Amino acid sequence: MQVSANKPIVKLDDIIETLKITHPEKTGKWSLLLPEYGNAYIWAEYPKPPEKADELYAPFRVLFHPYTGEVVAEHYWGETLWSLVYEVHATLLMGKFGGVNIGKFTFNIICFFGLFLCISTLTGLYLWMPRWNKIKSALTIKRHTSIERFCFDLHKTVGFYSTVILLILAFTGFSFAYADYIKPVIRYFSSVRIEHLKDPELKSSIINTSPISISTALSIADDIFPTAKLRGLFTPNGKDGVYEIDKMQAGEANHRWARSKVWIDQYSGKVLAIQDPMQFTAGETFLNVMWPLHSGEALGFIGRLLWCVAGFAPLMLYVTGIIRWLQKRVIQKLINF
């Protein structure tokens, strides 16, 4: 199914009403993510279902047809192939089967391995460095040669051409768990607010009236960011919760999780806070692009495609590296013999 730019999607108020009818026990905050590339549905997500409290991350997700509002599918995170791949990538499934604390510990360990990948990549680049008269040979794979030479050439060329992307993947992956250690270094060059990129703790004024509709909240956000594209929203979490409207301005690196945000009182419609990524300092912008750089979406479809291909680089490097090591061991044994 393809999303038509000329066809209006179903009203988001109707989506929320359907969720209230089909899942009345889930009275907390819902998030709605609108269709985007590779995502032709409206995704509704209940972030912390009580029945999954023993898992690190297992939101309940409902997929809606964008034009009819029909429920297409329902599942918990980790029950589909793609979300299971994410689980393996982030916590080796420890967040799903090992509990919250073990999941967090495993996540931190995996993120820390980003430093090892940085060191491995940089040392590999140092070992690759050829003399000027051998640059061409170092950048190509020699044709019609032995399997030993082919493995060597494949190792050095894949390593060189994937260096930049691997360093980006490694550093951004490390930053997800250890941003607090990176911020002091960034602050040496540019200011960074302590609570930057964290949702502010805001509350609505509880008055004897009905909450405003989602359509009204969206209209208020449009006055703040009139040319920005609506990407998603969060409904109020309880009686004193607030609306969070997420929009994407032209030039933003984050496409899926846009950073142009407006928080609105659910009763009075008063704007309580605004986040404008175009006003970020250099340091805040640096932290803001960690996720889109890690996923490749900062460079659009081409970036995502390059990142996907680069995902195979470590496998090729480790396999060819082991083969080269074994070859050298055989040669050394022959010499010693």
Task: Kindly describe this structure.
Helix content is 47%, strand content 13%. It is an alpha+beta fold and 337 residues long. The chain has 3 domains: 12-96, no CATH class; 100-185 and 307-336, no CATH class; 214-303. The chain has an 8-stranded antiparallel beta sheet with strand order 4-3-2-1-5-6-7-8, with helices on one face. Helix 4 (100-128) crosses helix 7 and helix 6 runs antiparallel to helix 12. It is elongated, with a radius of gyration of 25 Å.
Write the layout of secondary structure elements.
Layout: H1 12-22, E1 31-33, E2 42-46, E3 60-64, E4 71-76, H2 81-91, H3 94-97, H4 100-128, H5 135-138, H6 147-161, H7 163-187, H8 214-224, E5 229-234, E6 242-248, E7 260-265, E8 271-275, H9 282-288, H10 290-295, H11 300-310, H12 313-336
Antiparallel strand pairs: 1-2, 1-5, 2-3, 3-4, 5-6, 6-7, 7-8
